[in-house]
Design a protein that fits this description.
This protein is α+β, with helices and mostly antiparallel strands and 98 residues long. The protein is built from three helices and three strands. Helix content is 47%, strand content 14%. The radius of gyration is 12 Å and the shape is globular.
Length: 98
């Protein structure tokens, strides 16, 4: 199972390639760092700068060079697994974090 960090506008998500959707609410950079620390511990924090470098370059932390558009192309992020646009993903998952 692969999990990427995906950035849409100024929000970050952890994205699961298994479910083709975010598995976290939308987070700002500080929330992302706290999430990584809680979820993956010290090793996650050590890997984070390299992952964020890829995110800043291509929009995702994918080692395959995938962009946000590539990752969300066949997403199932909506209710009942429907495909959402980038804007809809941002809106729906920002609400989850409130």
């Amino acid at each position: 199972m692969s999990r990427y960090i995906v950035k849409i506008e100024d929000k970050y998500f952890e994205w699961s390639t298994c479910v083709d959707a975010p598995v976290t609410p939308a987070m700002d950079i500080n929330e992302l760092k706290e999430y990584i620390k809680d979820e993956y511990g010290r090793s996650g924090l050590m890997e984070l700068p390299e992952r964020l470098e890829r995110v800043n370059k291509q929009g995702t932390s994918s080692h395959l060079g995938e962009t946000v558009e590539d990752v969300i192309l066949h997403n199932m992020a909506g209710k009942n697994g429907e495909k959402l646009t980038k804007e809809e993903i941002l809106e729906q998952y920002a609400k989850q974090g409130q």
